[in-house]
Amino acid sequence: MAQKTAPDSTRRSERSRRAIYEAALALVGEVGYPKMTIEAIAARAGVGKQTIYRWWPSKSAVLLDAFLDLSEQASAELSEKAGLDEVATAIPDTGDLEADLKYVLRATVDEMTNPKFDAPARALAAEGVVNEQLGAEFLEKLLEPQLQLYVDRLRAAKEQGQVAPGIDPRIALELWTGPLAQRWMQRTGPLSHAYADKLVEYALYGIAPR
Amino acid sequence: MAQKTAPDSTRRSERSRRAIYEAALALVGEVGYPKMTIEAIAARAGVGKQTIYRWWPSKSAVLLDAFLDLSEQASAELSEKAGLDEVATAIPDTGDLEADLKYVLRATVDEMTNPKFDAPARALAAEGVVNEQLGAEFLEKLLEPQLQLYVDRLRAAKEQGQVAPGIDPRIALELWTGPLAQRWMQRTGPLSHAYADKLVEYALYGIAPR
């Protein structure tokens, strides 16, 4: 059994990979990150422990890939819903910033309130708050690339004259990602489409009289 | 030893109470909420386990009081710094909403970056993400009362014509509490006074051209 030749990565079974992702996401939601083990993921996925170690160096690496896969699936579903032939990898740009942000934020609310996403993402977010290394890894590979999509969209909006010249896009985007993250993590209020719409309006036009 | 008459609550030793709070805050930061026990708090505070059980029904109750005490201390320090005779329990109202919000948000940044606050608050915030009951308890007793101070200040600002009539204060306040919470919990960027100022400006005047 030991010293078996590792199969080439091109021979990875898609079915095993998916089973491992699903097992990792389910487990982390059920027992939390600290108690999740490679052994338990393997048992649940019906694969050998060595299969996992052959492809990933650590449990955080498995979980990261599982989340990347989950968010790709979410993008694919969203693109399909929008009738697109290809999976959208950017915030839509119809030329109407308000409409585009509302569209994306409503989808974000749908994802946050989807139980398939909610339990594993909570376990991960909770661990990232106290585990600086894991938090940094997920920020770099998962969260920041998503935030950068807003930076790109806001830069385009600036060129179109829809965002004021002095605004820093990397801070501006937090006017909606921050409130959504807080409502989700601290349960400070309901996550609804109406709420997403209001956030976009307040962020764009401000709360002071115009 | 057992069956000792419980002392009247007025006889609570201030010194023991403070030792218990400090032990609870230190422990939760070091081992996390799930592994924190009443026994360990008692040992660290140098009091008997029964002393704690006499005053608090559970570890979450001890920790909640410890946090309430910590935030009262922070308010007292802030009031002293501002040269006030009494401890401020509201957001200042100088008639200038922008200046008042910047003042309070800078103080919030100072608190969030203070190690005395950071470690225990992280442990608690992380647990609240996955532990719905604890999250709800702390939201109700600690977080929501703080958010309501902004609601009061925004209502006053509305009467003074500094907030547009259609704005919902309970959502508006999230334009700054959300980004601050996200930067703190998810470490998405530095927490500085300059950042706090920008949040206030963006929230008040919006990111679209005026």
From TrEMBL, chains A, B:
<dbReference type="InterPro" id="IPR036271">
    <property type="entry name" value="Tet_transcr_reg_TetR-rel_C_sf"/>
</dbReference>
<keyword id="KW-0805">Transcription regulation</keyword>
<feature type="domain" description="HTH tetR-type">
    <location>
        <begin position="14"/>
        <end position="74"/>
    </location>
</feature>
<dbReference type="GO" id="GO:0003700">
    <property type="term" value="F:DNA-binding transcription factor activity"/>
</dbReference>
<dbReference type="Pfam" id="PF00440">
    <property type="entry name" value="TetR_N"/>
</dbReference>
<keyword id="KW-0238">DNA-binding</keyword>
<dbReference type="InterPro" id="IPR011075">
    <property type="entry name" value="TetR_C"/>
</dbReference>
<dbReference type="Pfam" id="PF16859">
    <property type="entry name" value="TetR_C_11"/>
</dbReference>
<feature type="DNA-binding region" description="H-T-H motif">
    <location>
        <begin position="37"/>
        <end position="56"/>
    </location>
</feature>
<dbReference type="InterPro" id="IPR050109">
    <property type="entry name" value="HTH-type_TetR-like_transc_reg"/>
</dbReference>
<keyword id="KW-0804">Transcription</keyword>
<dbReference type="InterPro" id="IPR009057">
    <property type="entry name" value="Homeodomain-like_sf"/>
</dbReference>
<protein>
    <submittedName>
        <fullName>Putative HTH-type transcriptional regulator YdeS</fullName>
    </submittedName>
</protein>
<dbReference type="GO" id="GO:0000976">
    <property type="term" value="F:transcription cis-regulatory region binding"/>
</dbReference>
<dbReference type="InterPro" id="IPR001647">
    <property type="entry name" value="HTH_TetR"/>
</dbReference>
